[in-house]
Design a protein that fits this description.
Strand content of chain B: 25-35%
Largest interface: A-B, 60 and 76 residues
Helix content of chain A: 55-70%
Strand order of the largest sheet of chain B: 7-8-9-5-10-11
Oligomer: heterodimer
Number of helices of chain A: 13
Shape of chain B: globular
Number of helices of chain B: 9
Radius of gyration of chain B: 26 Å
Strand content of chain A: under 5%
Radius of gyration of chain A: 25 Å
Number of strands of chain A: 0
Largest sheet of chain A: none
Distance between the termini of chain A: 30 Å
Structural class of chain B: alpha/beta
Distance between the termini of chain B: 54 Å
Order of helices and strands of chain B: EEEHEEHEEHHHEHEHEEHEEEEEEEEH
Largest sheet of chain B: 6 strands, mixed
Order of helices and strands of chain A: HHHHHHHHHHHHH
Number of strands of chain B: 19
Number of domains of chain A: 1
């Protein structure tokens, strides 16, 4: 550290200030800026970042709890919203995709087929729409107390995860109604969930940081999500796409192999398409690393633009 | 925990140390460009090689070093960089240049509603804020009752905070920040909201924390409160340190500078003009506590008028400590009035003389400060200094103590 210069402190009571408006003081600072060697560079060590985040993991839990509680208090139906969103979408999809577009689902009942896709999609879109504004909405909090800033988007993702686990209950009901038990290959589900989580976290972190600087994204995001819902095989199957595009499609949108994988493993009793899953996982991990890095780089300026 | 390894410098310092040296911070001169369109326009202009975005320095080469357990007041006019410095100390904002290190847990109370979530109840807020400060849940729980008692929120603790009055929110905010045992407490002009009794409780609490070794940085425009709680004051002006030293000395230069800025010039153009207004010691020399003082006035009116002349004495732009009144006839001739105060009851400090001329229907001269003067007198620092500094008048009294 630079040797500390203190003025007029301990004894004497000699004050540096001269009373005058110009107040040149003992050393007049250069008006044009600090010497370049003093410029503050924030050093980011990935391990240290993660260690700090781990030390504050309780904060993510508390923030998640806060989001859930606040929502529970503000709305009449409370947690039922977590069920209603995917359920209503399923009803709409069943009417339109099945009746109008006649999507091929093999032996699987369409509601079950689309609900599996919708579960994965609502997690992603829920996490993203809450996470993208998590920094801007918590600015008052962020401007007072230090904490690793990524806890806010992380809490949004974990809120969405809670919602999704509530919504899974409808899947159970559908299994019973259609007498269609989940297949044994469902053991693949945790792997698929990991890929989905990496992708969701990456996009959420990236957007949360960018929204602070480009507020317009907030306005565009619902539209992009709407578009994404149809650009992802949620209401239809991967088979509706030309096979030669599957690879590129999976790289650009890792939700493609994930949703396809859920259907294959849970409903059809097949293993997931490994090649596509590897492509999707690779691009998810890259996105997560990029997203987290960008977030940590931009984090330093959050308080300045706020 | 006795030492803390800084994330920023990787060095160890005793908990509660603030070491910020050569801090520079700048902001965009036009912080409105947040839409894509404006940014695109900016990029285009940059590409064409014209119009660089301007920067404004908020802090310029500021040194701010505080030892554990020290209490430092931070004063300066609006926009002098006080809040920016606090934000940097709270690690909420990063400096552009400089070295800084704050060790230990920082409890910041930068605004009234620091970290309060309106949708949650008071109870939930206490837990949330505690976790934000990095305290484990059970530690927050163990201090919960103390906070509620201090904030006097027993009845309202399970009510949503959005239904609290602003005073209640402030009490909750202060209680949480002050009772979760931070190593460094940053307080930014928040006491203004509470009532007097609560303000006093806050000040008492801060003193208790100081005794316990908490480092305190206290920002306020209430210079008497600053003087009451901080032994050292740092004065920021236009982003740099204009003074740093014992509270009394820095505050007196600060008051002196304030006065020049707000140059005391009686308003003219009304029906009554102030030709002269002075506070002097009749024998010449300095104005002293408990000695004779004369107020000399010279007034002129644009027409014949009768009015009540009021003189007030205040510390800064505050309410007057005492008031003197006299009905007078004014005319276009200059009238001189002398008011003799036998024993001036003001302790050492800098005071303002206020003047106004009033009639039953309105005013002839609006109430305004017309002069300032210094009083020399017995130091009130003896005894319980905190209380003595806050008491505004000095009353001469005779004590008679004996067995009954």
């Amino acid at each position: 550290m630079v040797p500390v210069r203190r003025q007029g402190l301990a004894g004497g009571g000699d004050v540096v200030a001269d009373s005058g408006v110009a107040m040149a003081g003992a050393r007049a600072p250069a008006a044009d800026g600090p010497p370049p060697e003093l410029v503050f560079h924030r050093v980011l060590h990935p391990l240290q970042m993660l260690r700090e985040l781990w030390a504050r993991r309780e904060l993510v839990t508390v923030l998640t709890e806060r989001d859930l509680r606040a929502r529970y208090k503000q709305t009449k139906v409370g947690f039922a919203w977590a069920l209603l969103t995917p359920f209503l979408l399923m009803v709409v999809f069943t009417v339109f995709f099945k009746r109008v577009a006649d999507v091929r689902t093999g032996s699987v009942p369409y509601p079950l087929f689309s609900y599996v896709g919708l579960l994965a999609w609502t997690f992603f879109s829920g996490a993203l729409s809450k996470g993208a504004v998590s920094i801007t909405q918590n600015l008052t909090l962020l401007n007072k107390v230090y904490c690793p800033r990524e806890v806010f988007p992380l809490a949004s993702v974990s809120t969405a995860a809670v919602d999704s686990s509530i919504a899974v209950s409808i899947l159970g009901v559908l299994f019973v109604i259609y007498r269609f038990p989940p297949a044994a290959t469902s053991v693949w589900v945790p792997v698929l969930m990991l890929v989905q989580l990496a992708f969701t976290l990456g996009v959420t972190l990236l957007l949360a940081a960018l929204v602070v600087y480009f507020r317009d994204i907030r306005q565009v995001l619902p539209m992009i999500l709407q578009f994404g819902l149809f650009a992802t095989p949620v209401g239809y199957g991967l088979e509706e796409m030309p096979r030669k595009w599957w690879g590129v499609y999976s790289a650009l949108n890792p939700l493609v192999p994930v949703i396809d994988g859920y259907r294959r493993t849970v409903l059809l009793g097949e293993p997931p398409k490994i090649d596509l899953l590897v492509i999707g996982a690779t691009s998810s991990v890259i996105l997560l690393v990029v997203g987290y890095t960008v977030f940590k780089r931009l984090e330093a300026g959050f308080a300045d633009v706020a | 925990m006795t030492a803390h390894r800084s994330e920023v410098t990787g060095r160890s310092a005793p908990v509660g140390t603030i070491a910020a040296t050569q801090i520079w911070k700048r902001f965009r001169a036009d912080p409105t460009r947040q839409s894509l369109r404006a940014k695109a326009g900016h990029v285009k202009r940059l590409a064409q090689g014209k119009g660089r975005r301007g920067w404004r320095w908020a802090l310029r080469d500021v040194d701010f070093v505080v030892e554990p357990g020290e209490s430092v007041g931070l004063v300066g006019i609006n926009g002098s960089g006080k809040s920016t410095l606090l934000k940097i100390l709270a690690r909420v904002m990063y400096p552009y240049a400089g070295r800084f290190d704050v060790s230990g847990r920082v409890g910041a109370l930068i605004e009234v509603r620091a970290g309060i979530h309106p949708e949650l109840t008071g109870r939930e807020n206490i837990h949330l804020y505690g976790t934000l400060l990095g305290l484990p849940r059970r530690e927050v729980a163990s201090r919960f009752d103390e906070i509620v008692e201090f904030a006097q929120l027993e009845e309202a603790i399970d009510r949503q905070v959005k239904f609290y009055s602003s005073g209640m929110q402030m009490r909750l905010g202060f209680g949480v920040a002050a009772f979760l045992e931070p190593h460094v407490l940053l307080v930014d002009e928040v006491l203004a909201v509470g009532d007097t009794a609560f303000q006093q409780r806050c000040i008492d609490r801060m003193r208790t924390m100081l005794t316990a070794g908490t480092t305190l940085v206290f920002v306020s425009h209430d210079l008497a409160a600053v003087e009451g709680i901080s032994e050292r004051v740092v004065w920021l002006h236009d982003g740099h340190v204009a003074g740093d030293g014992p509270a009394r000395d820095v505050l007196s230069s600060y008051r002196g500078a304030l006065e020049q800025v707000a140059a005391i010039a009686p308003t003219s153009g009304g029906p009554v003009q102030v030709v002269k207004a002075q506070v002097i010691a009749p024998g010449g020399g300095a104005v002293r506590t408990q000695e004779r003082v004369e107020v000399v006035l010279a007034l002129r009116a644009s027409q014949q008028a009768a009015g009540r002349v009021c003189l007030g004495f205040s510390e800064g732009p505050a309410s007057p400590i005492f008031l003197l009144r006299r009905d007078m006839h004014l005319s276009d001739d200059e009238i001189t009035a002398r008011c003799d105060i036998e024993r001036l009851p003001l302790p050492r400090g800098r005071y303002y003389l206020w003047l106004g001329v009033f009639q039953a229907r309105g005013e002839l001269l609006p109430w305004q400060p017309v002069a300032s003067f210094d009083v020399i007198g017995p130091d009130l620092d003896a005894g319980p200094a905190g209380i003595a500094r806050l008491s505004p008048v000095h009353v001469a009294a005779h004590w008679d103590v004996g067995r009954t």
